[in-house]
Design goal:
The protein has 2 domains: 64 residues, Arc Repressor Mutant, subunit A; 152 residues, Chorismate lyase, CATH 3.40.1410. The protein has 286 residues and is an alpha+beta fold. Helices cover 26% and strands 30% of the residues.
C-alpha cells in the first residue's frame, strides 16, 4: 500500500489536515514508513493528495507535535525512531534497578507537584488521616524525546520529609526512596486499561480517547507501611506487559504457572507483536 493512495473528503466533518494526519500516522504505525526513513515533504503531500500547502503543513505539524516525525529547518523530514529497545529486569525485587536502567536512556519531566490534603481514597491507600498533607505529582517519561508514560504519584509525609520534590525530575523516585533510607519490602500492582483524557493525550502526544495501559501500584517498606501510591498510564503502541508461563503438574492436573526462572523485560514494537507472542518475556515497567 502506498501512502499516496488516499483521498481526502470535504464532505466529512473532520478537517482535511486531520484526515491526512490520521492517514499518515497509521502509515507510520503500520510500518509503511520505517523508523528513521525519509518522510514525504509538504510539497509532495500537496501534490499527491491534491490539497493546499497550508493543509499539508498543518498535517505535518500534527505529526511532528506527536513525535511521529522529526523536522529540522532546511532538512528533509524523517520518521522518528521512537520504538524503545531497553532491556530491563522483571519482578518486584528488581523495581529500583529497573528504574535506574530506565533513567539511563529516558528523561522525566515533572509537570506538577504540590502538597494537597489527602482525600478518602488517598488516605485509605496510604494509611494516613483524611486531610493529612501528602505530596501529589505528575511526571511524563520520554524515550528519544517521545513521551510514553504519564505518572500520578502520592507520597505521605514520612517520605516527603526525606526527599526534595525537585529531585523527582532527575532521578527515579524509587531510587530517591532508597537513598533516603527507605527500604522497599513489597508492592501491590493492578494492571488495567482506560481511555486517555484530553490532558493525558496532550502530554503523551496521542488522540483523546485512545486506549492506554494503566498500572496502579502501592509500594510498601519493610515494616509494611505504604510509602508510595503511583498510577502510570502507558502508550500501548510503545510498551506492553508480558509474563512467562510454564506448564506444571499439580494435584489437580497440569496447570499454567508463572515461571520462576530469571526473566528479562523489553519493550515490544507494534510491528513485532506477532513474533513477541513466541517469546517468553515478562515486563516490569518503571
Amino acid at each position: 500500500m502506498k501512502w499516496s493512495n488516499f483521498n481526502v473528503s470535504k464532505s466529512l466533518p473532520t478537517p482535511l489536515y486531520h484526515q491526512i494526519y490520521s492517514h499518515l500516522r497509521d502509515c507510520i504505525q503500520n510500518g509503511i514508513f520505517a523508523p528513521g526513513s525519509l518522510f514525504p515533504s509538504e510539497s509532495q503531500i500537496e501534490k499527491e493528495l491534491n490539497v493546499s500547502r497550508i493543509t499539508a503543513r498543518r498535517a505535518m505539524d500534527e505529526l511532528s507535535a506527536r513525535g511521529l516525525i522529526s523536522r529540522q529547518q532546511g532538512k528533509a523530514s524523517r520518521v522518528a525512531a521512537y520504538r524503545p529497545s531497553t532491556h530491563l529486569l522483571a519482578g518486584v525485587e528488581g523495581m529500583i534497578e529497573n528504574n535506574r536502567r530506565m533513567g539511563d536512556s529516558t528523561t522525566v519531566e515533572l509537570l506538577s507537584h504540590e502538597t494537597v490534603a489527602a482525600t478518602d481514597d488517598v488516605a485509605r491507600t496510604l494509611k494516613v488521616k483524611r486531610g493529612e498533607p501528602v505530596l501529589w505529582s505528575v511526571r511524563v517519561r520520554s524515550l528519544d524525546g517521545i513521551p510514553f508514560s504519564y505518572a500520578v504519584t502520592y507520597l505521605p509525609q514520612v517520605v516527603t520529609r526525606q526527599i526534595k520534590s525537585e529531585q523527582m525530575s532527575t532521578k527515579p523516585l524509587l531510587a530517591l526512596l532508597e537513598t533516603a533510607g527507605i527500604i522497599i519490602g513489597r508492592a501491590e500492582q493492578v494492571i488495567s486499561a482506560k481511555s486517555a483524557t484530553p490532558a493525558v493525550a496532550r502530554a503523551l502526544h496521542i488522540e483523546p480517547g485512545e486506549a492506554l495501559l494503566i498500572s496502579d501500584r502501592i509500594v510498601y517498606d519493610l515494616s509494611d507501611r505504604p510509602v508510595e501510591w503511583i498510577s502510570v498510564q502507558y502508550r500501548p503502541d510503545i510498551y506492553q506487559y508480558g509474563v512467562d508461563l510454564e506448564r506444571t503438574q499439580s494435584a489437580k492436573g497440569n496447570v499454567w504457572s508463572t515461571s520462576t526462572s530469571k526473566r528479562a523485560t523489553k519493550s515490544i514494537p507494534k510491528a513485532d507483536r506477532s513474533t513477541a507472542k513466541k517469546r517468553t518475556t515478562r515486563h516490569e515497567l518503571p
